[in-house]
UniProtKB/TrEMBL annotation:
It comes from Limulus polyphemus (Atlantic horseshoe crab). InterPro entries: MFS_2, MFS_trans_sf. This is Major facilitator superfamily domain-containing protein 12-like. Keywords: Membrane, Transmembrane, Transmembrane helix. The chain crosses the membrane at residues 21-43, 55-75, 95-115, 127-147, 167-187. Gene3D superfamilies: MFS general substrate transporter like domains. Belongs to the major facilitator superfamily. Pfam families: MFS_2 (PF13347). The keyword Acetylation does not apply.
Amino acid sequence: MTDAVQSFETSQHTLLLSTRLAYSVGHVLNDLCASMWFTYMLVYLHYVLEFDNNFAGVLLLIGQAADALATPFVGFESDRIDNFWLCRYGRKKTWHLLGTICVLISFPFLFNQCLGCSSSHQTAQVIYYAAFIIVFQFGWASVQISHLSLIPDLTPVSSERVELNSLRYAFTVASNVCVYGITWFELGVGGTDKDQHLTRSDASVFR
């Protein structure tokens, strides 16, 4: 009897291929940015911007603290039900859109030299980058939480939920490989010169 019910549910709730593909790429921007953030941000701050170790570490700490605060806030707010006009687009999709915009407008500034303050003291530059980091981490958390919480809304079938998670993870892996491959190509990693290292002249590569 249980197998018959599950079979009936599956036949009634089969997601379209376009829906599955659309969902699977809904977190790609976050994945690309996360790969850059966790792998190359500290390298960029230390070698390219020539930040002191303490300042570079503080910026990463600010980012993780902002993410820790934003994640439960977004999770709570995305489950609320109200009549706000923008939420007619869908509460979770609205948070996804808001997060995407925040990531798009903030992340490019993290891998750019401080606009108008590149010659200022590092303390001033830390404040500059911290502002964009907070916006980026808020946007990143908004996309991540809202994207994951869409799965139960898309389908009640457990096998389809597993498939959506698998597709999402597959694109996460592809995004990481893409970032590492492009960075390897642009920076020429693997050279034989042991004295070769990143400098301010490599800022354009990261940008």
